[in-house]
C-alpha cells in the first residue's frame, strides 16, 4: 500500500499518541521510504518527527555524550563536541552512505531500523550506550534483537542515544563500494572498566566479539589479535563476500581499529 496519511508531530507526547494501529514514525526516510516504495512495508500513517525540537542536538558531559534521535549523520560528522569527545563516532558518521544520505538520515532512524550492515549499532554496543526512549532507558546490550529488529514497542519513540566517553576508541569499516554499508565493520573501545569490540555487517544482527575483547584485555595492541581464531560459523555469505572472507576481514579491521586508537 503506497497510500498513507502524513502527519507531523510537534512534541514527543503528540507523536506517541498518533502512533497507533498501522502508523509509524518518519525521520530521515532513507530506509522507510524505499521500503514503502518497494512494497516491503505498508503503513496507514507516517508521523513526521523531525519538527520535535527536543529530539535534536548534542550534549557533552565528562562521562557521556548524548545525541538527540533526529540528529543527522552530517551533523554528528561535523560536530566539534563529538570530534573532541569521541572522534571515532564523528569518523563513523562521515563514512555513512553519501552526502545526500548523511544530510537526511538520523541516528535514531539508524538504530531503530537495525540494518545488519548499519554502522551506528556497532558504536552503541562498543561505547556501552543507553537508548533513551519515550518510555524507558535501554542498555545497548539489550536493545538489538535480530535482523531489522529491536526491543522497541509499538509507539515507543527513541529520544536520544547516550554514549560512554571511552579512554580510546576507533571504528574500521570494510565498506560496500556502492552503498558504503559495512561488509565488515569493527568498533573497538577501551572504556574505563572494560574493553568492548562490536561487529556489524557479518551476521543478521550486530554483536560483541568476546574472543577479541579477551585478547585485547590482556594486551591492547594489534599483535594480540594474531592468535585469535574467528570461526565463520553463522556468518553471512552473499554476493559481496563469503562467510570465510568476512571472518578473515574481521581480524584485519580489528587490527586496523586498534592501531588507530
Ligand atoms: C543509499 C543509502 C546508503 C546508505 N549507507 C549507509 C551506510 O553506509 N551506513 C549506515 O549505517 N547506514 C546507511 N544507510 C542508512 C541511513 O544511514 C539511515 O540512517 C537509515 O536509513 C535510517 O535513518 P532515517 O533517519 O532515514 O530513518 P527512517 O528511514 O525515517 O526510519 C527508519 C525506521 O526507524 C523508525 N524510526 C525512525 N526514527 C525513530 C525514532 N526516533 N524512534 C523510533 N523509531 C524510529 C521508523 O519508523 C522506521 O521504521 C544508507 C541509506 C541509503 C538510502
Write the layout of secondary structure elements.
Blueprint: E1 5-8, H1 12-18, E2 23-26, H2 32-37, E3 45-48, E4 58-60, E5 64-68, H3 73-78, H4 80-85, H5 87-94, H6 99-102, H7 107-113, H8 120-126, E6 130-133, E7 137-139, H9 140-143, E8 144-146, E9 149-150, E10 158-164, E11 168-175, E12 182-190, E13 195-200, E14 207-208, H10 210-218, H11 243-259
Parallel strand pairs: 1-3, 2-3
Antiparallel strand pairs: 4-5, 5-10, 6-7, 6-10, 8-9, 11-12, 12-13, 13-14
Bound molecules: flavin-adenine dinucleotide.
Quick structural summary:
With 261 residues, this protein is of the alpha+beta class.
General description of the model:
By secondary structure, the protein is an alpha+beta fold. The protein has helices spanning about 10-20, 30-35, 75-80, 80-85, 85-95, 100, 105-115, 120-125, 140-145, 210-220, 245-260, and strands at about 5-10, 25, 45-50, 60, 65-70, 130-135, 135-140, 145, 150, 160-165, 170-175, 180-190, 195-200, 205-210. The strands form four sheets. The chain has a five-stranded antiparallel β-sheet. A hairpin with a 6-residue loop joins strand 11 (about 170-175) and strand 12 (about 180-190). The mean pLDDT is about 95. Flavin-adenine dinucleotide binds near residues 28 and 120.
List all distinct small molecules, including ions and cofactors, that are bound in this structure. flavin-adenine dinucleotide
Q: Tell how many strands the DSSP assignment holds.
A: 14
> Strands of the largest sheet, in order across it?
4-5-10-6-7
Shape: globular
Give the helices and strands as they follow along the chain: EHEHEEEHHHHHHEEHEEEEEEEHH
Beta-strand percentage range: 15-25%
Helix residue percentage = 25-40%
Mean pLDDT, as a whole number? Answer: 97
Provide the low-confidence segments as ranges: none
SS-derived structural category:
alpha+beta
* First-last Cα distance: 47 Å
CA radius of gyration is 18 Å
Specify the biggest β-sheet: 5 strands, antiparallel
Number of helices: 11
